[in-house]
Amino acid sequence: MREDKQAATVLVQKGSVGDDLLTRLLAAEKELETEILEVVGEANSFKEGWGGYIFQTASEMLANEKTRELYTSLPRLKAEMALKYGKKKRTKVIEAPGSHTSPPSQSAEIPTTPSGTVPANLVPPTPPGAPGASSDADDSPTSTRTANSRTKKAKKRR
User: Fold this and answer.
1) What is the CA radius of gyration of the chain?
2) How far apart are CA 148 and CA 158, in angstroms?
């Protein structure tokens, strides 16, 4: 309301709108202020001090309601987006190492990129001693994590 009042005042000064708009806005502001005082008084009539918490509680309730509405509408929104953009997840079935005789239920579905490649973060690690496995200690997850943390710390210091 305060922002509207400032904008209306500027528009009246420029001559873009008439004085009657500012007059109506001021009247609405007084009416709203009166209603707020009534609500605070009524809240204090139930228990002293509630007038200070009534608007905070109302804001929390409104935020909760909006969040709940968004959460319940997610499946509908997801379906609408799928229809609008027509994208479906493409998956590629990759068998676990040594599971050539295992039932298909043990196979893992790994999403692929549009070009058909598997993202690097979804490629399973090669077990030690397997063909193509690296013997360098620098490729271990611990050393990579340590190197990444050093890099992040260096960036933070800059």
Assistant:
1) 31
2) 16
